[in-house]
Design goal:
alpha/beta; three-stranded antiparallel sheet; 12 helices; globular
Length: 342
C-alpha cells in the first residue's frame, strides 16, 4: 500500500494492482453553483455581477434561477457571453417590440419619471383599468409579450442542451410545492418560472399549473445545493424591505404583505450560502426597465465590494482543481494493467 496526502491511497497485492481508493481525508473537485434571484427589471443587476465573476475567471458548474434570474441564467447557461447579453438588453429596450409593449407602459407608470399632464392622466386610468381587468381574467399582462421577451434573450433549445447545467425554479399552484425544472423546453421552463401571479397566467407543464418560483423560493440557493453545488454564490435582487411608501389602498397593503413574506423566506434560503452579493437597488419597480444601465452598474459595484470573498473562493477552487488533477495523474501512474498472459 502506498499512501499520499489527504488520504489518497493506492493498494497493491503480490498479484499487482488490486484497487484504487481514498481515505477519509480525500476530497473530490468541488462544484460552484450560482443562484440568481427574481425581481423583474432589478434582475438586470445579475449581468453586472456576472461581469465581475467573468473577470475573476469564475465559471459556475451549475446555474439555478428564479423568474428574471431564470431569464439571465438561462441565457448565460446556453452559452451567451456576458458582454453579448448586456448588448441585447440595450437592443431590446430600443426595439419596437418593447417600446409598444404593455410592460413598458406599466414601467413608465411606476418609474416616477417626468411626464406631461396628459401622460400622467393616461397612466392613472390605465393603471386602474389593469387592476379592474385582474378581476375578470387570469392576468394583467398579455403572456405573448413575455414570451417574446424571453425569445429575444434565450435560444429555442432543450434544457439538456445548455452549455452549463441549468435549472429553473417555479411554483406548482395546485400542490403548493416548488418545482425544479431541468428538462424540456428552455424557453417554456423560464416562462413558467417568470409567471408573476396576477401579472401573468400560470404555465402548464406536465399537467402542473406553474407560476413564479419567487412565491416560495425568491433566491434558489437551497436548490443549487440540492442540485450538487458544493459552493453557492447567491444574488438576491429584491426591493429593500425598509423602503415603504404610503399604504393607502388594499393593493398597497397586499403588496407590502408579500414583500415581508418574501423577505423572511429569502433569509431562510440564504442562511448557508458561501458568497452573498446583494446589489443596492433601492425601490426600483419590477416593471421599470428604464434604468437598465444603472441596474447593471449597481450589480457590478456590489460584486466589486465582495471581491475579497470572490478571490478567496477563486483561489480555493484553483487549489481544489490542482489537487484533483494531481490525484488523477497519480491514479493513472500507479494503475498496473494485467498482462496478456494473466
Amino acid at each position: 500500500m502506498v499512501a499520499f496526502g489527504n488520504g489518497f491511497l493506492v493498494y497493491f497485492s503480490c498479484g499487482g494492482f488490486v484497487a484504487f481508493g481514498s481515505g477519509a481525508g480525500m476530497k473530490k473537485a468541488r462544484k460552484i453553483g450560482l443562484a440568481l434571484g427574481g425581481g423583474g427589471a432589478r434582475g438586470l443587476a445579475h449581468i453586472g455581477v456576472m461581469k465581475v465573476l467573468e473577470r475573476e475567471k469564475i465559471t459556475p458548474d451549475i446555474i439555478v434561477g428564479t423568474s428574471m434570474g431564470a431569464v439571465v441564467g438561462g441565457a448565460l447557461a446556453s452559452g451567451m457571453k456576458v458582454e453579448e447579453l448586456e448588448e441585447r438588453v440595450g437592443s431590446f429596450l430600443e426595439s419596437n417590440l418593447y417600446q409598444s409593449s404593455e410592460l413598458k407602459a406599466m414601467g413608465d407608470a411606476e418609474s416616477g419619471a417626468e411626464q406631461s399632464l396628459s401622460r400622467r392622466i393616461q397612466s392613472y386610468f390605465k393603471t386602474k383599468i389593469r387592476l379592474a381587468q385582474g378581476i375578470f381574467r387570469a392576468s394583467i399582462l398579455p403572456i405573448r409579450e413575455i414570451e417574446e421577451f424571453i425569445e429575444f434573450f434565450v435560444p429555442d433549445i432543450q434544457m439538456e442542451e445548455t452549455v452549463i447545467p441549468f435549472r429553473a425554479v417555479a411554483t406548482d399552484l395546485l400542490s403548493g410545492e416548488y418545482v425544479v425544472l431541468k428538462s424540456g423546453s428552455l424557453r417554456r421552463s423560464i416562462l413558467a418560472s417568470s409567471a408573476v401571479p396576477g401579472a401573468l397566467p400560470p404555465v402548464e407543464i406536465d399537467g402542473r399549473q406553474l407560476s413564479d418560483g419567487g412565491i416560495i423560493c425568491v433566491v434558489p440557493a437551497r436548490c443549487a445545493r440540492e442540485e450538487g453545488a458544493d459552493v453557492v454564490i447567491a444574488i438576491p435582487v429584491d426591493r429593500d424591505i425598509s423602503l415603504v411608501s404610503g399604504l393607502q389602498t388594499a393593493v398597497d397593503i397586499y403588496v407590502r404583505a408579500g414583500e415581508i413574506q418574501g423577505f423572511h423566506l429569502e433569509n431562510y434560503d440564504l442562511k448557508d450560502v458561501d458568497v452573498l452579493i446583494r446589489p443596492e437597488l433601492g425601490g426600483t419597480h419590477w416593471t421599470d426597465f428604464s434604468q437598465s444601465r444603472e441596474l447593471i452598474s449597481l450589480g457590478e459595484a456590489a460584486a466589486i465590494e465582495r471581491l475579497p470573498e470572490i478571490r478567496r473562493l477563486a483561489k480555493a477552487m484553483a487549489k481544489w482543481e490542482l489537487m484533483d488533477r494531481i490525484k488523477r495523474s497519480v491514479k493513472r501512474f500507479f494503475v498496473i494493467r494485467p498482462s496478456r498472459d494473466g
